Amino acid sequence: MESPLEEKDEALLPDFPKGPLQTYRARASFSWKELLLFLEGEDIIRLKRTIFSTLENDPLFARCCRGDIAVDKYRELSFLRCKRFLEYRFVRVKDFLQAPVKVSVLIECMGMYDWSVGIKYILNMLVFTLTVFSLGSERHFEYIQKIFKMEIFGCFALTELSHGSNSKAIRTTAHYDPSSEEFIINSPDFEASKFWVGNMGKTATHAVVFAQLYMPGGQCHGLHAFVVQIRDPKTLLSMPGVMVGDIGRKLGQNGLDNGFAMFHHVRVPRQALLNRTGDVTPDGSYVTPFKDNRQRFGASLDSLSAGRVSIMSMSTVNLKLAVCIAIRFSATRRQFGPTNMEEIPVLEYQMQQWRLLPYLAAVFALSHFSKCLFINLLEFYQGMQSQGRSAQQAALGREIHALASAGKPLTSWTAQRGVQECREACGGHGYLAVNRLGDLRDDNDPNCTYEGDNNVLLQQTSNFLLSLLAEKAQGGARAESPLKITGFLDAYPDILSQKFSAPSAGNAWAPEEVLDHSYTLAAYRWLVCYLLRESDRKLNQEKQAGSSDFDARNNSQVYHCHSLALAFMELTVAQRFHDFTRHASVPPSLRDVLGRLSALYSVWSLSQHVATLYQGGYFSGEQAGKMVKATILDLCSQLKDDAVALVDVLAPSDFFLDSPIGKADGQLYQNLWAAVLQGNQVLERPSWWPKFSCEKLEFRSLKPKLAQLCPISPYLREVDPTWPK
Amino acid sequence: MESPLEEKDEALLPDFPKGPLQTYRARASFSWKELLLFLEGEDIIRLKRTIFSTLENDPLFARCCRGDIAVDKYRELSFLRCKRFLEYRFVRVKDFLQAPVKVSVLIECMGMYDWSVGIKYILNMLVFTLTVFSLGSERHFEYIQKIFKMEIFGCFALTELSHGSNSKAIRTTAHYDPSSEEFIINSPDFEASKFWVGNMGKTATHAVVFAQLYMPGGQCHGLHAFVVQIRDPKTLLSMPGVMVGDIGRKLGQNGLDNGFAMFHHVRVPRQALLNRTGDVTPDGSYVTPFKDNRQRFGASLDSLSAGRVSIMSMSTVNLKLAVCIAIRFSATRRQFGPTNMEEIPVLEYQMQQWRLLPYLAAVFALSHFSKCLFINLLEFYQGMQSQGRSAQQAALGREIHALASAGKPLTSWTAQRGVQECREACGGHGYLAVNRLGDLRDDNDPNCTYEGDNNVLLQQTSNFLLSLLAEKAQGGARAESPLKITGFLDAYPDILSQKFSAPSAGNAWAPEEVLDHSYTLAAYRWLVCYLLRESDRKLNQEKQAGSSDFDARNNSQVYHCHSLALAFMELTVAQRFHDFTRHASVPPSLRDVLGRLSALYSVWSLSQHVATLYQGGYFSGEQAGKMVKATILDLCSQLKDDAVALVDVLAPSDFFLDSPIGKADGQLYQNLWAAVLQGNQVLERPSWWPKFSCEKLEFRSLKPKLAQLCPISPYLREVDPTWPK
Q1: Do B676 and A245 touch (CB under 8 A)?
Q2: By the CB < 8 Å criterion, does B11 face chain A?
Q3: Are A606 and B611 in contact (CB under 8 A)?
Q4: C-alpha to C-alpha distance for A221 and A234, rounded to whole angstroms
Q5: Which family does this protein fall into (chains A, B) (predicted)?
Q6: Which of A364, A383, B4, B708 is most open to solvent, judged by the fewest CB atoms within 10 Å of its CB?
């Protein structure tokens, strides 16, 4: 039978260079090229390869010593790279509408190169423009044109020094002055300075500023957005009344300039108000299609879902790169062995497999999920056009909101822990900056915080589930679930009465049961129902004990709503990946490896909840817990020989991966040694050598005291009787 | 009753400045001054305060913008600070023998200032000199004298590019040439270059180099240590035949210069061999008091225990500083509240308490443990003098080795996770470099790796426990446990037959039961016995199934030996802190707060193992699991009002803590704002502004395409009908 690959352009997917990884590559149970083509398709692969080779050949993108660059220079490079990305026009303007997946691939590639550039681009090209689009009207579209021409540079200024999560409590004000038809933007004090705003530190000329809108009569209409010019595009000097600056070095993403701004009675024209959700007439009347501030506020901030879905994809990219580095390292690093003569790759150790392979599975499961959710989001926006705000659309919007609100925490945390595990799994070499695991961890870290702190955000999802339960309790109506995510809750009481029944026999599932892993998903469904019931009970208990709604909610997060939201999200990710891997379109030659990845992600995620499965009585006896563990180890061992080929599917070009210990040729030590020797002034003595050589210390009568210098000297005396007492 | 405090010098423990933290300070159930005096004693407090104020007043130690300093400059500062520390002679030479705890306080203070300086000092002043002391003889003591005069600078060169954990497989060679009475040190290839060696990058003039010793006849006697001069102290240029350089930037500790060295047939005199465990006569005969290489190798490396105990203390310091920052932040950061008008400190949220307070408890428990183990180590060394290698001493040595081998992993991991949690708990501001949580995390990270990778090291402890079990099985003799740590294993079968019996009633323990928390410790003892039995069974199963010893051991780590070592260590830490807090010497006014900290550390640590407690049948029913959770939350809530005062006990001076959001005055925003404005060129436009302002992009006919730019444009059209199709 002719392989479908032979028909493809061989140049598209060239073989990897021969080398130490060959052994594992030869052992793989599947063709990495076939899996890559199946997952991404030829067009996307071609686009990625184009981006990879274009940037690799452009000196502006040349890699320099990681971290050895001054912040100002790094900011400059990030700005220039951001601009060059736009100039290359890898994606056509029409693709934004017709092939938005290409746009997300573009962003993924920018992030694989460096998130400082990627986020700078996103904040300017997407967040600023989308906010102007969605909150403004035609009179604001000139800003978009100017952004695309790079005449101006944008930022999104919501958070303040003293307010982040509680965005409703923002204190910047905008007073309308009908005499001049202007708004006066003002920061009452430094605690109300806009703070943390990406691109604001050095680059942005225009900001979407959120402020409390006050009418001449003193009435406050709540938070509104205004386009405010903060710097002169001709000089990059700040505008009068605007004190704008850089908040300084962060743990990562230092190519991005986060900034602050204080407004001292800055006057902007009436037209600066982004007026979709509310407008002010020239004479100072407030008009809005919304009934109350709360509803208006919700509508004005619902573009945040797109940000959260993006962060899921960003986090997954970070984990993907870290796993590529750690697995290629583990397949080539040899340490210890059955005899003194022979050392084996550390990937052969069960411990190393257990540390890394679940994260490899997580990359596949989470990538699939974030791609799906992105498509759901696009469908939602398209549905808004054809159906408007129908009940079906409203339900879809709610469901996407719930998934994005727990998807961001799950993905960013999995990535954060996974990258750290990869760093540790690469030992000392993982701690060397040139190998990139530090940058991946540091650049990923804020994904846990911005666009909604993870712990706060999870409440959105648990609230959604609790409201479904309440609806059922009230009417018994079928839970509306356009994405079929929450349908299983219809069987809530039945599921709660289920118990785990051990499969066939022994300590582990039979191979076909493992790949099916319906046991895991059933256990997850029980877990979600149990946590839902417990959360509901806990909330009611609190209220019955006299707690306010505020206190009741706060006291029901730990071990209840918080766990519920995460477990629900893990189930959703696991279920979607399970469905995908068992779809008829999967080539038979790929089913086993995809099935194993899916099973491993499920059972590994579930293993965090075994205590709860026992506590609630779903598990009982010693076998249940042992089976979960045995299954994880079994799957790790089955995937071990496929790991390098799976990483070949995930990894970008060596230039993009940018890690000597993770290169595709597997020449671990040659690559690392070369990278170290190419460092800055590696072999030179330090500039301050005279300070070492000229200034010595005076110690009189040191020698007789030597014996007392060290707490173990008595021990030494045993060895050396001449040692002075 | 007159407070004992009034007799003390008020200047020693001045009150904190008034401010927003006052509310919590007033609510504390105990006096922070009393607790500090009880825990540290007046002498240590005085020493610390002296160090704090001396450094704060020395411009050499002035803080500069975190991370904004070039590596070369940072290395210079670290070297000069290291030297200045020595010049200040905070600790007298005789204190090294008479009051070694003072030396550990000195190192703790250096670390609180900056671990780059601290580790540079430790490697030179302690590791190099102790190695020369313990492996060498009188002819080598001149090196120590020179180290103290700063005439030379030392490093410890064991690991190579391709060998870390498996140190026996080191490939550097030392061939003896009797004709010149010299050793020829050689690196066979770059993979055998010494690598990761602290101080070697730029500073060290002398290295203790570990190499395989070869006799003229070709016989190899295994690993030996040699003092090799690598640089000329007059010029800091490398010595002939030595290619020595810097391995480059790391994720943290960049004030420390880690380096590499390749030796090209470098000749050193016969006397360069550190000859305690084996020597070579001038004519080329090898003499050793040890029977075989294996025994000799063990003896030559057993000084590593001291390093591991030090790392426990280093990790605890990192966690301590992070917890101080995060708790002071949480007590002053307000976000959301019961009404729109009033916001409450985030420390009031159960979720925030649950995230942070267990780590606060861990700081107390782990600090106590690492201090104890340090004292045990000193006693061990003293015992070597009086008793030599008696059976009792041998048992003590083994026990300390087992505790240090699991203590380092437990402490470094707890710190790594805790610092990350603190970073996240401080939200965006935690991600700002100036607040130090990033440096704490990055500087702590290698504690998980060096001096034995955590996962590899845990095997030492599980092997120790398994060997105790085997000894019992063979002779039934009482497990020898000089530190009374493993005595409970005598009751191994009885303990295994125990089951958890719910205390009095309800969802949680009664207050007095919580403080007693003998339930937790009993559960832990069962857990250790169960994991010991399971590990032993697993190893035997593997062997019966035909696995080699090597494979059997490797396949018994995950969920078995690995968990066993950690659980045993947690129990040991919890038990020791429990005993300490219930000791008669504890003032009655401190018993409750210390008891709560002890109980929280125990039950929080135990909560990681609830699945195993159920799996093994120690727990059954829903109540057991729920009680563990309820107890944690209950203790968090009880400790919440004491948290700020507890942090006042732990925190160094503001200058040492070096975190605007963690300052003692609690003026969160004022301090942060001041720090940001004091940054480098905060308000200036970037140097590259003309590149922004002059070069614009050409986009023809952009406006008609605008509508297609964004995937959500259909959604926008609903809002704005003028939006072009």
Answers
A1: yes
A2: no
A3: no
A4: 35
A5: Belongs to the acyl-CoA oxidase family.
A6: B4
Give the per-residue pLDDT at A709.
Answer: 42
Tell me the pLDDT tens digit for each residue of B236-249.
999 999 999 999 99
Tell me which of B234, B346, B424 to substitute to probe the interface with A (most A C-beta atoms closer than 10 Å).
Answer: B424
For residue B327, what are its two tokens?
A: 């708790």
**Which residues of B carry out catalysis?**
451
User: For B462-473, how does the pLDDT look when each residue is reduced to its tens digit (9 = 90+)?
Assistant: 999 999 999 888
pLDDT value of residue B378: 87
Phi first, then psi: what are they for B643, rounded to 5°?
A: -60, -45
Question: Read out DSSP for A497-510?
Answer: T------SSSSS--
Give the whole-angstrom CA distance, residue A104 versus residue A48. 11
Is B343–A86 a contact, with Cβ atoms under 8 angstroms apart? no
- How does pLDDT run across A36-95, given as a tens digit for each residue? 999 999 999 999 999 999 999 999 999 876 667 889 999 999 999 999 988 898 887 667
* Record: contact B83-A424, CB cut-off 8 A: no
Which of A72, A161, A719 faces B276 most closely, judged by CB atoms? A719
Residue with tokens 């042992």: A626
Tell me if residue A374 falls in helix, strand or coil: helix
Out of B138, B236, B246, whose CB is closest to A679? B246
In which residue ranges of chain A is pLDDT below 50?
1-2, 301, 700-725
Q: Which residues does residue A210 pair with via DSSP β-bridges, in sequence order?
A: A225
CA distances from A141 to A145, A203, A272 (A): 7, 21, 12
| C-beta pairs of B576-584 under 8 Å, 24+ apart in sequence | B576/B368, B576/B369, B576/B372, B577/B364, B577/B365, B577/B368, B577/B369, B577/B601, B578/B517, B578/B521, B578/B602, B580/B368
Query: What six digits make up the tokens of B525?
Result: 């003892």
pLDDT in tens, B12-25: 899 999 999 999 99
DSSP result, B340-358: TTB--BGGGSHHHHHHHHH
Contacts of B692 in chain A (CB under 8 A): 79, 153, 203, 233, 236
In chain B, residues with a C-beta closer than 8 Å to the C-beta of A76 are 686-688, 691
For residue B573 the two structure tokens come to 């830490």
ipTM over 0.90: yes
Confidence band, pLDDT 50/70/90 cuts, at residue B291: confident
Assess contact for A338 and A674: CB atoms under 8 A. Answer: no
Residues in chain A closer than 8 A to B706 (CB atoms):
141, 144-145
A379 is catalytic: no
Q: Angle B499-B502-B505 (CA atoms, 0-180°, nearest 5)? A: 170
- List all residues of chain B from 125 to 154 with a beta carbon under 8 Å from chain A: 126, 129-130, 133-134, 137-138, 141, 144-145, 148-151, 153
Whether A716 and B388 lie within 8 Å, measured CB to CB: no
A472 in reach of chain B (CB within 8 A): no
pTM: 0.95
Separation between Cα atoms, residue B663 and residue B656, nearest integer Å: 10
DSSP B289: S
Do the Cβ atoms of B30 and B586 come closer than 8 Å?
no
Mean pLDDT, chain B, integer? 90
Least Cα distance to B398 among B494, B447, B456, B466 occurs for B466
The pLDDT of residue B300 is above 90: no
| Pick from B196, B445, B693: CB nearest A233 | B693
Predicted pLDDT at B633: 97
CB contact under 8 A, A688 and B245: no
Asked whether the beta carbons of B300 and B620 are under 8 A apart, the reply is no
Average pLDDT over residues B150-154: 94
What do you get for the CA distance between the two ends of chain B, in Å?
85
Burial class of residue B661 in the structure, from the number of CB atoms within 10 Å of its CB (0-12 exposed, 13-18 middle, 19+ buried) = buried
Catalytic residue among A451, A534, A542, A570: A451
Name the least confident of A62-71, A463-472, B481-490, B675-684: A62-71
